[in-house]
Amino acid sequence: MGSKQIAQETFDDAVQENITEFEMDPEEAVREAVQQFESQGVDLSNIVKAVRPPASENGQRQKHQILLTLDCLGRAVAEQDMAELPEHLSAFAAQCKEQLAFRYLAGQNGAYPVVFSACQLAAGDRDLLLQAFSTLSALLDGQPDLLDTTGQELVLQSLRERREDAEMTLAGIRCVRHACLKHEQNRQDFVKAGILPLLTGAIVQHGDSADVVRTAASALRVMTFDDDIRVPFGHAHDHAKMIVLENDGLRVLIEAAKAFRDNSGVLSELCATLSRLSVRNEFCQEIVDLGGLNFMVTLLADCMEHPDVVRQVLSAIRAVAGNDDVKDAIVDAGATELIVLAISQHLGNPQICEQGCAALCMLALRKPENCSVIMEGGGALAALQAMKAHPREVAVQKQACMLIRNLVSRSRDFSRPILEMGAENLITEARAAHRDCDDVARAALRDLGCKVELRELWTGQKGGLAQ
């Protein structure tokens, strides 16, 4: 994706020029403008790719539909027209949900204060307030910078005062999640203001609501992200510890899973969040003690046909396997065969291949007994098949190389059978194709007993070979 940005007006002018100067029809004019800017490396993800209505008779420029809808909403708010407000909130929210470009254009043209005012205006009307919060959530999706301190306070107040209302809770949590994704300051502000007990409390209070449980678990996970490139160091690790130690997060999530044994979407979300909370040895062990491992293994077995679920479960198993004692529990639970089956059954899916190899890699680390189980279960062959299926996926290549190394580093008897599977050529090819694979590939080849040539790099200087 391009890194250059342009204004909506610049794009609109280019489209209009194509229509007037080159006599293109509207659709062709838009396509040509898109091609023109993208060829120059311009990121058009925030641009409405449509023809703006023609200027009025007095020459005044017309607005895109989303801005016309915003104007109607703004008038209803300014006039406190409670009869018209629901219709305009509904229309504006629907257009915001269509695509990021629409809500970005609205956000750049003063939509947030209008929607915030609508939330304040609707405070005494539960149904209208629900609609206003849903509209705020739609506007914030992909635009966390819009939310200010007063907006944070309003959302928190609603979550506290209406905690027994499942629909209002869901709307508030969606606002929190959108506001915290890729925004470290909002995360820290919400955590300091007490959002974590509200999220875990929502899961307990509305444990029979799939939407609330799934969304609250997702919001908890977002609090553990480190995805804001504007901030050098976030509080992801601290937030994860707070969720577990101060809010009993592991127990809350695992208990919630019991109500949704047949809902793969909810269980997948809970697994994903548990994997983000596995930041300490004792947390990994607690997940096992609370029954979390059993539900993960059962979920993997029951949902093998659902790739999204499989990927999340493999990621969670990989995370909890950071504890050496838990490694043994995972193998004893029969997860190894299921992981190999997942790789084989979803060989065309690079994410599953990566997570599957990574999970086996963790299980094999410092555990010769587990290596024997993995070998007997076909783990090495599955990893090599994944390498063969995804030669351009560096993550798959790296995880497979590390798995092979872990299998043979303390069990050299496995070297010959693995080499007979064609490992040397695949690992050598990975090393040649991906600079990021060099170290792990070289280590795997060395421990397999292969001759390893040090890679020579051209530095561009006199005598310019560097090892």
Notes on the structure:
The chain is 68% helix and 1% strand. By secondary structure, it is mainly α. It has a two-stranded antiparallel ribbon. Helix 4 (85-98) runs parallel beside helix 7 (126-140). The longest helix is centred in the last third of the chain and has 16 residues, at 394-409. The radius of gyration is 27 Å and the shape is globular.
Helix content: 55-70%
- SSE succession: HHHHHHHHHHHHHHHHHHHHHHHHHHHEE
Secondary structure tally: strands: 2
Per DSSP, the total helix count is 27
Low-confidence stretches: 456-467
Biggest sheet strand order reads 1-2
SS strand fraction: under 5%
| Alpha-carbon distance between the two ends | 34 Å
Write the layout of secondary structure elements.
Layout: H1 8-20, H2 26-39, H3 65-78, H4 85-98, H5 100-108, H6 111-121, H7 126-140, H8 149-161, H9 166-180, H10 184-192, H11 195-205, H12 210-222, H13 236-245, H14 249-257, H15 264-277, H16 281-289, H17 292-302, H18 307-320, H19 324-332, H20 335-345, H21 350-364, H22 368-376, H23 379-389, H24 394-409, H25 415-420, H26 423-433, H27 438-448, E1 457-458, E2 465-466
Antiparallel strand pairs: 1-2
Characteristics:
mainly alpha, two-stranded antiparallel ribbon, 2 strands, 68% helix, disordered C terminus
